[in-house]
Design goal:
Elements lengths: L1 E5 L4 H13 L3 E5 L4 H10 L6 E4 L2 E4 L1 H11 L10 H32 L1 H6 L7 H8 L3 H10 L4 H21 L13 H9 L23 H4 L5 H14 L15 E2 L4
Parallel strand pairs: 1-2, 2-5
Antiparallel strand pairs: 1-3, 3-4
Helix pairs in contact: 1-3, 1-9, 4-7, 4-8, 4-9, 9-11
């Protein structure tokens, strides 16, 4: 079985999970705890970032490289078109989504969790011990703002990211106005990337993520409650209903709750 080293709330991990589900591939999720889990991941793969896909004795890092690998090794239900124009457009949109929705979505989410400790705690996986939820929820907002400067998340940059995301959502809504998918009549990597990367703006309404049921269908109000973007999120949720497998209770099959990475 394929193994996905991931972080449940990582939108790049979600992009890969959606691709795996679309292709109908069974996989096991292995949750990489930030910090110590990344040390073990580095020992295995030579880098610390998720997602990483393990296929037999091979490790593939980076969501784009994973997508290309899966289309090559598991060609059923291809996600990258062979037609040159559609292929180019698909890869262009996927790269744009990684650099725009992916990166800017993190900044927008950081602003929200910095100001709302209850929202901050609600984003933790349901399996997180209560003591850790209390510790994380108790971090002062002012301290998080200071820490944001340290990682390049200053208030000005966050506001710039939010403004850019508004334009992105407007553009996507227009592109989907008269087409079922971003590049034509069939879903491609472009659709799966955009849909998966958008989870930090508004969570899917179904049971797809290991997060409390109370935040399903909710997100950052500036996006999730704006009626101008509802056509996009309706499209995204329809795509999830078509292709994303819901969570199940066991830990050995696709869509299951993640197991923790084992440290030797």
């Amino acid at each position: 079985m394929l193994e996905l080293y991931q972080w449940e709330l990582s939108q790049y991990s979600e992009k890969v999970r959606l691709i795996l589900d679309f292709k109908g591939l069974d996989y096991r999720k292995i949750e990489v705890t930030p910090g110590i889990g990344q040390v073990e991941l580095f020992r295995l793969t030579g880098q610390k970032q998720v997602p990483v896909l393990k296929d037999r004795n091979r490790y593939i890092a980076d969501s784009t490289e994973i997508a290309k690998y899966l289309d090559l090794e598991y060609p059923d239900r291809p996600i990258i078109p062979q037609d040159p124009k559609k292929r180019g457009l698909t890869l262009l949109i996927e790269e744009w989504a990684d650099e725009s929705i992916g990166i800017k979505g993190r900044k927008a989410l950081f602003a929200a969790v910095s100001q709302d400790q209850n929202f901050r705690k609600s984003l933790l996986p349901t399996s997180t011990p209560d003591i850790f939820k209390s510790l994380i929820g108790g971090v002062p907002s002012d301290l998080l703002t200071v820490l944001g400067f340290g990682v390049g998340y200053s208030p000005d940059l966050i506001q710039s990211a939010i403004a850019s995301l508004k334009q992105d959502l407007e553009a996507l809504t227009l592109l989907l106005a008269d087409s079922p998918y971003l590049t034509g009549d069939e879903p491609t990597l472009a659709d799966l990337a955009v849909a998966g990367l958008s989870i930090l703006l508004k969570f899917p309404s179904g049971p797809y993520l290991d997060l409390p049921a109370s935040i399903r269908g909710k997100g950052l109000p500036i996006f999730s409650e704006n009626i101008d973007y509802q056509p996009f999120f309706t499209w995204r949720d329809r795509l999830y209903a078509q292709f994303r497998r819901p969570l199940i209770t066991t830990t050995s099959a696709t869509g299951s709750a993640p197991t923790s990475i084992q440290i030797d």
